[in-house]
Amino acid sequence: MKRAEAEIIREYGPFPGIDSVHGVTYDGQHVWFGSGDKLNAFDPASANPALRSLDVPADAGTAFDGQHLFQIDGDRIQKIDPKTGQVLATIPAPDGGGNSGLAWAEGSLWVGQYRSRKIHQVDPETGAILRAIESNRFVTGVTWVDGDLWHGTWEDDASELRHIDSQTGEVLESLEMPTGVYVSGLESDGGEQLFCGGGTSGKVRAVRRPRRDSAAGSDAGVPIESTSE
What we know:
The chain is about 0% helix and about 50% strand. By secondary structure, the protein is an all-beta fold. Strand 11 (about 100-105) and strand 12 (about 110-115) form a beta hairpin.
C-alpha cells in the first residue's frame, strides 16, 4: 500500500451559520454539502464563494447523478430537485451501521456505513443492496473517480483518504490528513481534486488527488464516473 500525506490545496469556509459539514457532492460547477437542516451549494472557483441553500434534512451523505441530488435522511435516501428542493422520490437506506457517505456511479448509489465499516452498492430505484465491500476502518464519505473507489475515514482521532480495491476492499493508497483535520464527506471533481467535508470545522477542503499509476491496478469494467458524497 502506498502512504502519503494529504496535500490540502484550498479551504472553503467556515461559512456563516454553518456549524458542521456532512455529505459532499459536486455537480460540475458547484460543490454541495449537507449542514444538518440544509443542503448548501457554492462555486469552488470563486475567490469568495457565496452559499445557496435548500431546506432539506442533510446530516449524512450527499450525491449527484447528473440531474438530481440524493441525500441520506436517517433510514431513507431522498431524491431531490436541485432547483427547487422538492423531494421527488424516496428509497430505504441500508439497515444498521450508521449510513454516512453517498456516491453515484454507473447507475448505482454507493452508501458508506460508518460503524459497520462497509460500502454498499444500492439500486437507486428500490434501495435493494446489490453487493457490499468490507473496510477495516470507519467509513465516512465515498466517491468514484477514473474507475477508482475512494472513501474517507475518521477513527481514533485521525482521518485518511483511502483508494481501495472495489472487489476486495484492499487498501491500495492512503492519504493521511494532518493532525486535527477530519473527513466527514468526500467527492471528486473528476480531475485532480478531492473535496472533503470537514465535520465540525464547518469547512470544505480540496485535497490533491495523486496522479493515477496504471500499475496500481484500477478495476476494469467498474464505475468510471463520480458524483458523490
